């Protein structure tokens, strides 16, 4: 592996800030590719050539001992047990010898850090490409498999998942990426990217229990760090580019219902019942439905009558149980049900009327 001159130059400048001495970096061909003394860049360094061959440190006491070299210490730089270059400190033996091991270790650490950054950038580029390819209809409809740059196999069973905070705010994506990276060791090949504040995950199918545990951990960790509830919606299993696109649409429905109503760490699309219908209603129609059914309820009584109706349904339309749950007299509860009928023209005791009122009130969560 070769270290680029850009990375090498960044490293030598960082090292000089620590040691206040001239630093050189030589590549595997013994060429100085980076230096705090720019006049030396591009020259052959015979001392580095010796280090590369012997894989041992070399102290030079005389500027004329090795072609292109000056007095100082030169240390082999190793990565995965291979010498990939040489770092040198210019100066008298008594001043530089003590810093040899330090400069070697620091250089190797800086190289590893840069490599990790580069790997993460490439992973994000791959994830962004794969997920954008799924989400963009024109790419799917083109049937142009030659555009599959990463040769990704979309026919393997995958789960499509979307995550989002309950409320929208600006935040650093890097922290979410860090949490996901840290807690994905139990799940194979997770592709993930944040697009417009939504986290898209494309995961090769795993056991339901394992998936649920993983998403619960992610939800808890993200919620705890940002102090804002974080929820996931999960689409059905996909086995092609087209079905993956559809699955992300279904995951968006599950997420929408989860954020507004269910408020669980994760919600599977197949758990939706009425939520499947409500999340599919156009926003313009929501206001139309609510206006038709609920418009004559006085604003100051709206929340109370909404609670009455929802508890009435929760208690299987039992007035006694509903009154007990709300700690009011059954006659008071009956009176409030009658007021709902008076204001709306719909009688909650009649099944069809109850359904209309129930749906109209639930649509509050969709706005």
3D structure, described in words:
By secondary structure, the chain is α+β, with helices and mostly antiparallel strands. It has three domains: 5-115, 2-Layer Sandwich (Beta-Lactamase); 153-273, Reverse transcriptase/Diguanylate cyclase domain (Alpha-Beta Plaits), CATH 3.30.70.270; 283-366, Arc Repressor Mutant, subunit A. It is 51% helix and 16% strand. It contains 14 helices and ten strands. It has a five-stranded antiparallel sheet with strand order 2-1-5-4-3, with helices on both faces. Strands 7-8-6-9-10 form a five-stranded mixed sheet. A hairpin with a 5-residue loop joins β1 and β2 (32-35). The longest helix has 36 residues, at 100-135. The chain starts with a helix and ends in a 5-residue tail after the last helix.
Comma- or semicolon-separated keywords:
Arc Repressor Mutant, subunit A, 5-stranded mixed sheet, 14 helices, 5-stranded antiparallel sheet, elongated, alpha+beta, Beta-Lactamase, Alpha-Beta Plaits, single chain
Topology of helices and strands:
Blueprint: H1 5-19, E1 23-26, E2 32-35, H2 46-54, E3 58-60, E4 72-79, E5 82-90, H3 93-96, H4 100-135, H5 137-142, E6 158-165, H6 173-182, E7 190-195, E8 198-204, H7 208-226, E9 230-234, H8 241-262, E10 266-268, H9 274-278, H10 283-294, H11 299-314, H12 319-326, H13 330-344, H14 351-362
Parallel strand pairs: 9-10
Antiparallel strand pairs: 1-2, 1-5, 3-4, 4-5, 6-8, 6-9, 7-8
Helix pairs in contact: 1-4, 10-14, 11-12, 11-14, 12-13
């Amino acid at each position: 592996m070769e270290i680029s001159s850009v990375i090498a130059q960044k490293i030598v400048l960082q090292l000089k800030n620590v040691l206040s001495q001239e630093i050189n970096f030589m590549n595997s061909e013994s060429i100085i590719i980076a230096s705090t003394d720019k006049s030396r860049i591009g020259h052959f360094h015979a001392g580095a050539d010796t280090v590369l061959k012997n894989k041992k440190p070399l102290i030079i006491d005389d500027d004329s001992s090795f072609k292109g070299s000056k007095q100082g210490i030169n240390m082999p730089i190793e990565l995965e047990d291979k010498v990939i270059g040489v770092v040198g400190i210019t100066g008298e033996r008594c001043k530089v010898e003590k810093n040899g091991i330090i400069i070697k270790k620091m250089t190797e650490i800086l190289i590893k850090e840069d490599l990790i950054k580069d790997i993460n950038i490439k992973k994000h580029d791959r994830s962004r490409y794969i997920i954008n390819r799924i989400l963009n209809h024109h790419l799917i409809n083109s049937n142009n498999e030659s555009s599959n740059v990463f040769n990704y196999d979309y026919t393997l069973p995958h789960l499509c998942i979307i995550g989002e905070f309950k409320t929208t705010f600006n935040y650093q994506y890097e922290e979410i990426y860090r949490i996901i990276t840290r807690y994905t060791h139990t799940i194979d090949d997770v592709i993930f990217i944040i697009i417009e504040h939504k986290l898209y995950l494309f995961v090769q199918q795993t056991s339901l229990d394992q998936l649920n545990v993983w998403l619960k951990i992610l939800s808890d960790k993200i919620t705890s760090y940002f102090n804002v509830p974080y929820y996931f919606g999960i689409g059905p299993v996909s086995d092609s580019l087209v079905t993956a696109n559809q699955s992300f649409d279904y995951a968006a429905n599950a997420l929408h219902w989860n954020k507004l109503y269910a408020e669980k760490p994760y919600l599977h699309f197949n758990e939706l019942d009425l939520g499947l219908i409500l999340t599919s209603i156009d926003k313009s129609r929501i206001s139309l439905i609510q206006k038709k059914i609920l418009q004559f309820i006085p604003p100051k009584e709206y929340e109370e009558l909404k609670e009455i109706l929802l508890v009435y349904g929760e208690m299987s339309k039992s007035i006694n149980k509903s009154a007990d749950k709300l700690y009011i007299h059954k006659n008071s509860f009956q009176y409030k049900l009658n007021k709902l009928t008076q204001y709306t023209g719909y009688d909650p005791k009649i099944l069809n009327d109850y359904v209309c009122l129930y749906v109209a009130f639930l649509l509050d969560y969709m706005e």
